[in-house]
Amino acid sequence: MDRTATMITTLLRRFRDHPRAADAAVAAAVFACCVPGSVITLPGSPLEVPYWPGMLLTGISCTALLLRRRRPRVTAAVAALCATIMAALGHVLTVMLLGPLMVALYSLAVRTDRKTANTFTFTGIAVLVITALLSGPVGDPLVLTVIGPVAWLLLPTSLGTAYRLRTAYLEAVEARAAHAERTREQEARERVTEERLRIARDLHDVVAHHLVLANIQAGAVARFLNTSPERAEKTVTELTATTASALRELRATVGLLRHPDDPDMPPHPAPSLDQLPGLTASFRPTGLIVSLTIQGEPRALSAGADLTAYRIVQEALTNVTKHATARTAEVRLSYAHDRLVIAVINGGGTASGGSVSLRGGYGLIGMRERAHSAGGRLRAGHRPEGGFEVVAELPLGPFPLEDSAAKETTAG
Fold first, then answer.
1. Which of 146, 181, 216 is a domain's end point?
2. Listed residues 158, 181, 204: the one ending a domain
3. What pLDDT score was predicted for residue 2?
4. CA atoms lying within 13 Å on the CB side of residue 94
5. Is residue 270 part of a domain?
6. The pTM is what?
7. Assigned domain for 281 exists
8. Are 90 and 136 in contact (CB under 8 A)?
9. 404 in a domain, yes or no?
10. What is the 3-state secondary structure (H, E, C) of the chain?
11. Which range marks the domain in which residue 374 is found?
């Protein structure tokens, strides 16, 4: 049994690899089966025509089957014409006589559309049945002249249509699977890109914040070194703490690029609003006094929104340290029923005496991108009463804020 199955599988594979040989084998097999059909008569009725015209017409029909892959319509037309001529000569329309036409109609249904296959089939049935009724004796049974030809010719058309539809369905399923695979790969690439952008923003915020503080503290050390050694020593200590904090945050941020199972990279908690007191205190060595005000009932944010809020405050205060002449700033957290409003305000001008450019750097761009990524919005600009403010609104729920594009001031 196993050997027989193996032989059949091997034979089918060879036929699939050599379609012309398969078509020739099918034509030869159909001819061998249909030759007896040219000599079949009704019981008790002698054959009124010689057998050779039927064999010749059967050979022509089977030869046309060699074109059934490339010219299915021509093949079906030739087979139907030969069958009609044999019916006109008085041959009985048995399944053996109709064999070439059945194979031709099956190939036509597989390789064309349903309308074409049905048109050829019903036209051939009508022509054959009418020819058989007009050419045959009056007493011929209807099962041989009508019912039989109709059933035998509808069968291959139905099977061919079913096979074509099944093949189309499988191709559609494979196409959807391939599309889904490509979509998954694209989504994975997009997630990787978004993660890289987020890490880049984190690195920008961490480096900018701590380098600004370190630069100011290093300048203070240089000023106090000769005039006030005690203050210089204190500032050096603060500088050491600043650089240590920078290294910790850089290690935590770069650790996101490492494998999560790496034993050399222990996990570090992400910054959050709970750490704002420490953040505001870190600016005191630079001479900037930051006040923190909380309005409303504090509510928990998602991890991403919490980190976003912290980074926005950090970047805004860093910008105050770099650009503003004022030595005071205020951070306000206002909790509403559906959002958290973060405002970072300073009341002084810029270090150069001009206005802060809203289009010249990446700090405001990064803050805005962070707010958008958390479903919120951000605006920044000069205050009518003087100074500069950065205001961010972040949702407290899972849904983004509405109409953010319409209400946002274009800046940065």
1. 181
2. 181
3. 62
4. 16
5. no
6. 0.47
7. no
8. yes
9. yes
10. CHHHHHHHHHHHHHHHHCHHHHHHHHHHHHHHHHHHHHHCCCCCCCCCCCHHHHHHHHHHHHHHHHHCCCCHHHHHHHHHHHHHHHHHHCCCCCCCCCHHHHHHHHHHHHHCCHHHHHHHHHHHHHHHHHHHHHHCCCCCCHHHHHHHHHHHHHHHHHHHHHHHHHHHHHHHHHHHHHHHHHHHHHHHHHHHHHHHHHHHHHHHHHHHHHHHHHHHHHHHHHHHHHHCHHHHHHHHHHHHHHHHHHHHHHHHHHHHHCCCCCCCCCCCCCCCHHHHHHHHHCCHHHCCEEEEEEECCCCCCCHHHHHHHHHHHHHHHHHHHHHECCCEEEEEEEECCCEEEEEEEECCCECCCCCCCCCCCCHHHHHHHHHHHCCCEEEEEECCCCCEEEEEEEECCCCCCCCHHHHCCCCC
11. 288-412
Q: Considering only CA atoms, which of 65, 66, 53, 100 is closest in space to residue 80?
A: 100
Contact 358, 381 (CB under 8 A): yes
End-to-end Cα, the chain, rounded Å: 78
pLDDT at 347 over 80: no
Q: Does residue 68 belong to any structural domain of this protein?
A: yes
**What is the phi-psi region of residue 45: left when phi exceeds 0, alpha when psi lies from -120 to 50, beta otherwise?**
beta
For range 346-361, the mean pLDDT: 50
Packing angle, helices 148-227 and 99-111, rounded to 10: 20
CATH of the domain at 412: 3.30.565.10
Same domain for 10 and 128?
Answer: yes
Q: Which of 81, 86, 108, 109 is nearest to 97 (CA)?
A: 86
Amino acid occupying residue 405 = A
pLDDT more than 90, % of the chain: 14
Average confidence (pLDDT) over 107-123: 90
How many beta carbons lie within 10 A of that of residue 82, not counting itself? 22
Query: Of 363, 279, 369, which Cα lies nearest the Cα of 319?
Result: 363
- 120 near 76, Cβ under 8 Å? yes
Name the β-bridge partners of 295.
Answer: 334
User: Beta-carbon neighbour count of residue 74 at 10 Å?
Assistant: 14
Sole residue written with tokens 């958008």? 372
Q: pLDDT at position 253, please?
A: 62
Q: What is d(CA 166, CA 110) in angstroms, rounded to the nearest whole number?
A: 10
Domain count across the chain: 2
